[in-house]
Amino acid sequence: MAFLATKQSLLLTLLAIGFLVVAASAGNFYESFDITWGNGRANIYENGQLLVCTLDKTSGSGFVSKKEYLYGKIDMKIKLVKGNSAGTVAAYYLSSKGETWDEIDFEFLGNVSGQPYTIHTNVFTGGKGNREMQFHLWFDPTADFHTYTVHWNPLNIIFLVDGMPIRVFKNNEKSGIGYPTGQPMKIYSSLWEADDWATQGGRVKIDWNNAPFSASYRNFNDQSSCSRTSNLTWVSCDANENLWKWTTLNDHQKGQLKWIQDEFMIYNYCTDYKRFPTPQTYPKECNL
């Protein structure tokens, strides 16, 4: 009983100093993000409910969250660049800082008109990535807003599109495989030019006659076991498992995952035997 009382007191203290413990908030862009680059090419509209990033021949643009997160479920509705978007990349990801950073990536690689977008996903731990999986979509991501979600918890990282899982990266630290556990991350997004690699390996270049390009964002929502603003000292808030629901996929979601990976996955690093030709180079987690 004394242990429970101590945990309850800690929770009340954290709430009092401004932490969000299992708090869900529909973010106003003015309140939740800072525009970090682009010299006026990223702008907030509709009383903070809509953010638009643009890219022209001079520069792209981007923004970053005011808060840092240690585990959480992050949703963002995004409408991607219309028309001939070849050579453009809209990035939406979580990342820590430093030479041994952790990162969880969504990147949306544009294509020529009528060709499908590519969703590029990756997970970095300790500054090392090389865990790419790529997908096409089963809808037109430029016609309307769709929800892209990162659900990051101690068990696994789940990438979701409109609530449907497309990828799961499991925590296999006990097997010596890196996993993002100790570094709080901020949310970043940007629209930029990458025609040296983005579209068909760089074979299709950006057509600046279509500029300016734009990507739009709505309905940011965060649900976190613990977050902080930059002027507060970090405290981990997830000691009590009841404070957060550590989620894995149910049977229905496993069926959705299998369908998406069977029908729409176009690259999986775990089956790239030209890139990893020997047992010494083959990623450990792929054997699990």
UniProtKB/TrEMBL annotation:
Glycosylation sites: N111
Annotated GH16 domain residues: 23-217
Localization of this protein: Secreted, Cell wall; Secreted, Extracellular space, Apoplast
Enzyme class: transferase
Top-rank taxon: Eukaryota
Stretches that traverse the bilayer: none
Alphabetically ordered keywords of this record: Apoplast, Cell wall, Cell wall biogenesis/degradation, Disulfide bond, Glycoprotein, Glycosidase, Hydrolase, Secreted, Signal, Transferase
InterPro entries according to UniProt: Beta-glucanase-like, Beta-glucanase/XTH, ConA-like_dom_sf, GH16_AS, XET_C, XTH
PTM annotation: Contains at least one intrachain disulfide bond essential for its enzymatic activity.
Broad class of where this protein is predominantly found: secreted
Cross-referenced Pfam families: Glyco_hydro_16, XET_C
Active site: E103 (nucleophile), E107 (proton donor)
UniProt EC number: 2.4.1.207
A single GO BP: xyloglucan metabolic process
GO molecular function annotations of the record: hydrolase activity, hydrolyzing O-glycosyl compounds; xyloglucan:xyloglucosyl transferase activity
Signal sequence annotation: 1-26
GO CC annotation terms, alphabetical: apoplast
Family membership noted in the UniProt record: Belongs to the glycosyl hydrolase 16 family.
Protein name: Xyloglucan endotransglucosylase/hydrolase
Organism annotation: Microthlaspi erraticum
